[in-house]
Amino acid sequence: MLTASEPAPPAQVPMHRLHFDEPGPPRPAELPGGGPAWLVSRYADVRQVLTDPRFGRALLYAPDAPALSDVPDLVNSPDLMFNQDGPGHLRLRRTLRRAFTPRAVARWRPWIAAIVEDLLDRLEASPQPADVVAGFALPLPVAVISRLMGLDEPAWDRMRHWSEHAFSDGTHDSEQVASALQEFGAFGADLLAERRRAPGDDLISELVSAADQEGGVPEAQLVGLVCGLVVGGHDSTMTMLANALFYLLGERPETWPLLGADEEAAGRVADRIIHLVPLGDDRGSARHTAADVEVGGVTIPAGAIVLADCGMANRDPKVFPLATFHDLFAPLEAPTLSFGAGPHYCLGAWLARLELQLALHRLAARFPGLRLAEPMETVSWRVGTTSRSPQRLTVSW
Questions:
Q1: What is the average pLDDT value for the chain, to the nearest integer?
Q2: What pLDDT is recorded for position 8?
Q3: Do residues 176 and 165 make contact, with C-beta atoms less than 8 angstroms apart?
Q4: 3-state helix/strand/coil string of the chain
Q5: Cα distance between residue 149 and residue 235, in whole Å
């Protein structure tokens, strides 16, 4: 099952079993802090909100706007590219867009595959049962983003520390989060300065060059972009891969031999898992409405905050029939909204999909008898951040 019949405490519910209500017309809702909002949940409606320029992000951080979080975090920084709109957002996005095209990502495939094989060699040599999170799901995306950005291995532990605070769910102490983010920002600023002095063959050097050519990009936004790449480039993929392995090995073991035998099939499964298994428990990507807008037959007034629930929209039975809902090998009937849509569509979508496809295919090919070494209900969850996945996942083969 990919939905739960009854909600339960989030930290105990596997991500593939989260409960989603039936999508419906736009309706009044509340922000986490209690402020008013509108919930949009049908596929067509969510897609409209994410693509219509009248729904923006920048005004969410106006001085008189209600707070979206009780503690500081990177996700709610006004300098983050995701929180920019209009020409400023496009200027910042252009500095990276060419680096993450499908063609560019395809050129990275050989060395990403080599990283996968090296990690599988190490996993095979380790004693059983082994933790597949520590041995594979985490080091794979960390190694990939580190190579892209020209980061050395000593920075890896700090990357995890910064990620935990950058994506805090509010349970961290505010001063602790602020201190970590200040340290993280200093790291990003130093990295930019270093690449300006001595450019290399890496993503940060390309970013510096593109920003200089573009002109007018504030330094604080470049620092936010670097920090966003560091944490987003590994945390999301690690979360997807760990949750995918938990679901496939725990509840869909019949799919495992097919993943190892057919890389294209592994790609379709990767697409389905990205589509159906959220990264975290948060519901709704927030937008601010600049004018009265009709969505799904309902007029949402200017100045309103809209929560576009991509999880509910990805389960809209009018777009994704229930007949294929549990068929992991069936191609998606429409583009997933897990990466967003419109001007804020995730730049790293193609890279994340490639990593997940290669990881599932090669892991299943190398370890056709891979299985969980502990009951699903005893698995502990990584908490404290807006993304959630198994803290450890012990396996045998």
A1: 88
A2: 42
A3: yes
A4: CCCCCCCCCHHHCCHHHCCCCCCCCCEEEECCCCCEEEEECCHHHHHHHHHCCCEECHHHHCCCCCCCCCCCCHHHCCCCHHHCCHHHHHHHHHHHHHHHCHHHHHHHHHHHHHHHHHHHHHHHHCCCCEEHHHHHHCHHHHHHHHHHHCCCHHHHHHHHHHHHHHCECCCCCHHHHHHHHHHHHHHHHHHHHHHHHCCCCCHHHHHHHHHHHHCCCCHHHHHHHHHHHHHHHHHHHHHHHHHHHHHHHHHCHHHHHHHHHCHHHHHHHHHHHHHHCCCCCCCCEEEEECCCEEECCEEECCCCEEEECHHHHCCCCCCCCHHHCCCCCCCCCCCCCCCCCHHHCCCCHHHHHHHHHHHHHHHHHHCCCCEECCCHHHCCECCCECCCCECCCEEEC
A5: 15
Mind listing the pLDDT tens digit for each residue in 263-321? 999 999 999 999 999 998 877 799 999 999 999 999 999 999 999 999 999 999 999 99
Which residues, including other chains, have CB under 8 Å from residue 334's CB and lie 6 or more apart? 43, 319, 320
CA distance 5 to 392: 26
Q: In the block, which residue shows the tokens 């209690």? A: 34
